[in-house]
Design brief:
The complex is a heterodimer.
Chain A lengths: L10 E2 L19 E6 L2 E7 L6 E7 L4 E7 L7 E6 L6 E5 L7 E2 L20 E7 L8 E6 L2 E5 L7 E4 L5 H6 L13 E6 L7 E5 L3 E5 L7 E2 L20 E6 L6 E6 L2 E6 L20 E6 L7 E5 L17 E4 L7 E3 L17 E3 L7 E4 L5 E4 L7 E4 L5 E7 L6
Antiparallel strand pairs in A: 1-4, 2-3, 2-28, 3-4, 5-6, 6-7, 7-8, 9-10, 10-11, 11-12, 13-14, 14-15, 15-16, 17-18, 18-19, 20-21, 21-22, 22-23, 24-25, 25-26, 26-27
Chain B lengths: L1 E3 L5 H4 L3 E3 L5 H11 L3 H5 L10 E5 L2 E3 L11 E6 L5
Parallel strand pairs in B: 1-5
Antiparallel strand pairs in B: 1-2, 3-4, 3-5
Classes of the chains: A mainly beta, B alpha+beta.
Chain lengths: 405, 85
């Protein structure tokens, strides 16, 4: 049994600002923007026009929240992957939109190591993905160190779904200290094919992209065409560093990826990625962390480039923040920065910290390492700051709460 | 015996000091888990190691041994160690 019920957080408008862009119809109901930070989580509830936002939070003030996700299957269940500086990692669940939280009875954890086996300990749950629409209650979680967990009961109990370390071949691919992710290698971007619950993908910050077509019984790498850091052997999966993957809901054979070494696209059944980031302006490059796709048009996607030159400053290139968007599958890219600071903006956007909504036109959102949430109600045409003065933002997701008007 | 609970774990216990029984630190932690489900995993990982920023003191002396024998009159203090800003 889980306990640790958290009290309802105070609701406040204090952190919300009013975006300046004019009203447009969304066609998809009010959107909520779920913001996970290094020191808690906030939820911003939009009005139907996405012009004004009501803030709920902080939830879990002081907890490191890596991901906060609303279940699109019921519009009620929220899962938060959390830990604190002192306490071990866990998952909190809410079934009433975040008013009350209950801890998972069995959070993601490795099995007890056998004699002579290397003991593995979950440092943090990094990524949460709701399962297929036909599998209510199923969730997936990616952790650091890298492992994939599954829950069949709405996030209350978790078991290893695919223990990548138990497969000798995978163990070999992971068998180096190449991964340089500052707070540990991460299994992320768990993608579920909306046509087929048994077809999944995931990425590993040290280990490449992987696919199963049989509900996780067997997995295969999907890395052909991907580059690795100069001087390293691309045939060694440990050298592959996907940052973020997205599957196109309108065309699930198409995936986009922001990788350590560029922006890529793949159209299945092809098994080879194409570096569409070559078409980005040379002075900006195609390094970054997040990538976001359009809910209805698989030719449209957005990225947030960062400075990956020299010592990898991980800031906006030249201090000039901009989203780049494509409308043709990555053949050409447009700079989308109207409304953003025109100088001296030395933040960036992490791999989970950018999201789209289902509106028409699509709303785009990103959270910065400096604690600002930026929003566009017109697919990146104009941006405004939705909230500021938050802790470092780790993740931004959107959702629609059941019954929201 | 009396166990001092640090602030990060008081969402489980609701109080600063709780009573727990056991002939060793491991048994006391098991009793705490029985009373306050979920609390143990926040302190002890799945490989039975103390988490890096949780410390245990018995009668004022630090111990890293879950098998440390305890008497009913011992005072156990669970402490949050420095973990950065």
């Amino acid at each position: 049994m889980a306990t640790s019920v958290k009290k309802s957080p105070a609701r406040s408008r204090a952190a919300a600002k009013r975006p300046a862009a004019k009203s447009r119809s969304t066609g998809a109901g009010p959107v909520a923007v779920l913001v996970a930070t290094r020191k808690g989580a906030w939820i911003f509830h939009g009005d139907p026009s996405r012009r004004t936002w009501r803030s709920s939070g902080p939830h879990f003030l002081g907890h490191t929240v890596h991901h906060l996700v609303l279940d699109p299957r019921d519009g009620r269940t929220l899962l938060a992957a959390a830990k604190t500086g002192h306490l071990g990692p866990t998952v909190f669940r809410s079934t009433d939109g975040g008013r009350k939280w209950k801890e998972a009875a069995r959070p993601p954890a490795f099995p007890r190591a056998g004699e002579g086996e290397k003991a593995r300990v979950v440092d943090h749950t990094f990524w949460l993905t709701p399962g297929h629409a036909n599998e209510p209650g199923v969730w997936y979680a990616g952790t650091s160190p890298q492992a994939l967990f599954r829950s069949g009961d709405g996030g209350a109990t978790w078991d290893l779904f695919f223990d990548i370390h138990s497969d000798p071949q995978y163990r070999q691919w992971l068998g180096t200290s190449q991964d340089g992710t500052p707070d540990g290698p991460k299994l992320h971007s768990i993608l579920v094919d909306p046509r087929d619950a048994s077809h999944l993908y995931f990425g590993m910050s040290g280990g490449g992209v992987h696919e199963t077509v049989d509900q996780g019984r067997t997995w295969k790498p999907l890395v052909a065409g991907l580059e690795v850091v100069e001087g390293f052997d691309a045939s060694n999966l440990a050298f592959h560093d996907p940052h973020c993957l997205q599957i196109c809901p309108s065309q699930p054979d198409r995936l986009y990826m922001q990788n350590h070494c560029g922006i890529y696209r793949i159209d299945r059944p092809a098994n080879e990625w194409t570096r569409i980031g070559r078409n980005m302006p040379r002075r900006v490059g195609d390094i970054g962390f997040p990538v976001v796709v359009h809910p209805r048009d698989a030719d449209r996607a957005w990225v947030f480039p960062m400075d990956g030159s020299s010592v990898w400053p991980r800031t906006c290139p030249g201090g000039l923040p901009a989203v780049y968007g494509t409308r043709n599958g990555g053949r050409t890219w447009q700079r989308l920065a109207q409304g953003m600071p025109g100088r001296d903006a030395w933040w960036t956007v992490k791999r989970q910290a950018m999201a789209s909504d289902l509106g028409d036109p699509v709303g785009l959102y990103f959270g910065t390492t400096s604690g600002e949430v930026w929003a566009s109600r017109d697919e990146g045409g104009r941006w405004s700051c939705l909230a500021g003065h938050l802790p470092e933002i780790y993740a931004v997701e959107t959702g629609r709460f059941a019954g929201a008007r | 015996m009396n166990v001092l609970i640090p602030t990060p774990l008081r969402s489980y216990t609701g109080q600063r000091r709780v009573e727990a029984a056991g002939a060793s630190l491991a048994e006391v932690l098991a009793d705490l888990e029985r009373q306050f489900p979920g609390i143990r995993f926040r302190m002890i990982d799945e490989q039975e190691s103390m988490r890096p920023h949780i410390r245990f003191f018995v009668n004022g002396a630090q111990t890293f041994d879950l098998a440390r024998p305890l008497n009913a009159t011992d005072e156990v203090a669970i402490v949050q160690a420095l973990s950065g800003g």
